[in-house]
Amino acid sequence: MTNTPKLDALNPRHKKFVLAYCETLNDSEAARAAGYADRREGWRLRQREDIGAAISEILEDFVMGKTELLARLSRDARADMRDFTHVSPVSREFWTPARTHPEVRELAASRKLHVDDLDDYDLEGHFGAERVAHTADGVRLIREHVIESEVVIDWQKIEERGQLSVIKKLKKAKDGSVEFELVDAVRAKELIGRHHKLFTDKVEHSGDVGLVIGIDVIPPEGVRDDA
Question: What's the sign of the alpha-carbon dihedral 25, 29, 35, 39?
């Protein structure tokens, strides 16, 4: 952060507080960063005229101007997950108990047998030997193979395009998958539209709104108004 005249005029500890406050915008955190044990000291320091002036001088550079604000809103309005995600097929295999497998039940029904009466020959003939197995206690299993679609996030592309700020919420699930939510693009478009006066708010009043209208009556020439 660039030094400013008012910042340079402070002692080292106060300067450290000012810089920490401008980074965090938090009195307590800035006070701790400057070495103060009492977190309430931050509020007291910020009331000092010299420290307050130094903070204001630095923060002026961080205030967002109209052009930057509209640019950021425009970026949010154009946020599209297709810019940095793609759908990728994922192959997954798992084993299912044979007696609860739908195809095994259909096979047994077609032969008018109970599922437990089907032997390995029946199952291997239907599914293939490589898809039939047994557990140590003799439970027969059927191997399933499915292809699912998975949304893959290209984090490198997000960073290269400077679009990390359009991600409003990021959450990692227990299975390792990542859920994310983008900023409200519709709201951003609405704010831009209001700036350009594209929308007109219509206000309707009903009932007694306490409006008094005064009317001046000008009588025709030659007619007295007290007649």
Answer: positive
Q: What is the Cα–Cα distance from 118 to 68, expressed in whole angstroms?
A: 72
Q: Is residue 82 over pLDDT 60?
A: yes
CATH of domain 5-63: 1.10.10
Contact 46, 55 (CB under 8 A): yes
| Residues 222, 152: Cα–Cα separation, whole Å | 89
For the chain, residues classed under CATH 1.10.10 are 5-63
Cβ-proximal residues to 170 (8 Å cutoff; 6+ apart), any chain:
178, 179, 180, 181
Distance CA 192, CA 28 (A): 36
pTM score, two decimals?
Answer: 0.44
Query: Would you state the pLDDT for residue 169?
Result: 82
